[in-house]
Amino acid sequence: MSNKLLTLWRYMRTPKKFKSRSQIELWQKKRVAKHINFVRNNSVFYANHWQGISDEDWRKFPLVNKASMMDNLENLLTIDLDLEEAFSVAKSAEITRDFSPRIGDISIGFSSGTSGSRGVHIVSDKEASNWAGFMLARGLGGSIFGKHHVALFLRANSNNYGKIGSKRIKFSFFDLLKPMDQLQKEVELANPTELIAPPSVLRYLAENNCKINPKRVVSAAEVLDPIDQKIISKYFSQVVHQFYTSTEGEIAATCELGVLHLNESIMHIGKEWIDEENGLFHPIITDFMRKTQPIIRYKQNDILVLKKEVCQCGDARTAISQVMGRSDDVFYLQKKGSDDFEPIVPDFIRRAVMRLNPQIEAYHAIQKSRNKIEIGLQPSNLSPLDYSGFEELFKEKNVEKAELVIVEHTHTPSTNKLRRIYREWNHNS
Predict the structure, then answer these.
(1) By Cβ atoms counted within 10 A, which residue in 9, 41, 65, 295 is the most buried?
(2) In what order do the strands lie in the sheet with 362-369?
(3) CB atoms within 10 A of CB 115
(4) Distance (Å, whole) CA 372 – CA 375
(5) Which of 373, 372, 370 is nearest to 338 (CA)?
(6) How far lies 227's CA from each of 38, 244, 351, in Å?
(7) For the packed helices 3-13 and 125-139, what is the interaxial angle rounded to 10 degrees?
(8) Alpha helices (H) along 333-413
(9) HSE-CB for 272 with a 13 A CA cutoff
């Protein structure tokens, strides 16, 4: 089967909705069982990692994370691949901005490395075509048989998109290494029907009166903050959709109502609870579509929040109210009368920041040390500032008051991801 036929087949086979959880579980059961058997027989790392545990007990397999994956990558892969050559190809592509070179039918790409260490994404042509069909089914603003021009603002281009282009579906890559004013002119000339970009880019286009009228706007690659979502949605006069993707896979996409649902037709996503009462958890991913670089029982350090209400779209896939960010976006403030620290998830920080002044247009918050938080605001001359949100937070969490340092917020969309809330200080040091 050709790549384009495989993409079409996957598009047609991807369920638009699941009616019940039992339907999802049945769908996953057959596919996970087959996949686990394949991986055990083709990956030296996983075969050793799962010793003494049967395929039927796969939920008891020990977890994997980015560090263990990268440390064991050569033996984890189900193909023979010269990693030195593979990394050289990926590095060269990032320098030359020519992303076409591959090794055989294998494409290699790096993650952005915003968490401090870079991951790697290794896929075959067949996997890429499957992925393309799935993403078109989940994200295309209309039928695959209609005409579409999809604009992709990316840190790095991918071989995947070129393979699925056709007379009906055109993909245009906008390289985020270029100046944003140049990219705006280029996208205005392209006049796409679908626009996929990081929220920082979407907001830039909105604030600079970008003269395009896409049928669908999709936020990707960065956490979509409510302050940005509101501005983007108003400018483009539509729901801002989202792709929640990472090096580890395509984890969630929005329904027609703009609510994120986990992509449970291609992966099983377990939960390591951070705060079960409030629905906060780390996802544990078992992707049963990826064969070259298997992702099984992989613990991500992102923090997701379950949506408490049932989504009105009727899809039984798990709904997510928010992607908070990673574990290193959690602040650690010193408990009163103790040397221990209290974790403060980003949403509490965001709410306290937004209470500083109703005229805030953009912001960042960075924990610089155990008792210092830098807050960047835009506009920079807001007055007065209401610190009651932070005072209440410190009191409710029973932590020592942190020094709040107010600076000007600036960010130019580029290959550097926008992170509004994160921690630079290592609380374990």
Answers:
(1) 295
(2) 403-408, 372-378, 362-369, 421-423
(3) 20
(4) 10
(5) 370
(6) 45, 18, 11
(7) 40
(8) 346-354, 388-396
(9) 16
Token code pair at residue 291? 């064969």
For residue 187, the one-letter residue type is V
**Four-CA torsion 244, 249, 251, 252, nearest 10 degrees:** 50
Q: What's the token pair of residue 42?
A: 């083709």
From CA 186, how far away is CA 177, in angstroms rounded?
14
**Are the beta carbons of 123 and 103 closer than 8 angstroms?**
no
Are the C-beta atoms of residues 305 and 278 closer than 8 Å to each other? yes
Task: Write the DSSP symbol of residue 103.
Answer: B
- 3-state SS, 218-245, equals EEECCCCCHHHHHHHHHHHCCCEEEEEE
The structure tokens listed for 144 are: 């695959």
Q: What pLDDT is recorded for position 162?
A: 55
Report the C-alpha gap between 375 and 405 in whole angstroms: 6
Query: Tokens at residue 163, please?
Result: 């393979």
User: What is the per-residue burial (b if ≥16 Cβ within 10 Å, else e) of 265-281?
Assistant: bbbbbeeeebeeeebbb
**Residue 205: how many CB atoms within 10 A of its CB?**
24
Largest CA distance in the chain: 67
Where residue 93 falls (left for φ over 0; alpha for ψ -120 to 50; beta otherwise) is alpha
The residue-averaged pLDDT of 46-69 equals: 96
Q: Compute the distance between CA of residue 363 and CA of residue 360 in angstroms, rounded to an integer.
A: 7
What tens digit of pLDDT does each residue of 289-343 get?
A: 999 999 999 999 888 999 999 999 999 999 999 887 777 778 999 999 898 998 8
Helix axes 226-236, 199-207, angle to 10 degrees: 50
Distance separating alpha carbons of residues 188 and 211, to the nearest angstrom? 6
Place of tokens 């909705």: 17
Answer yes or no: is pLDDT of 270 > 60: yes
pTM here is 0.83
Which pair of structure tokens corresponds to residue 402? 């942190």
Q: What is the mean pLDDT of the chain?
A: 89
Question: Is the separation of the CB atoms in 199 and 219 below 8 Å?
Answer: yes
Whether 148 and 169 have beta carbons less than 8 Å apart is answered as yes
The kind and range of the H/E element at 375 are strand 372-378
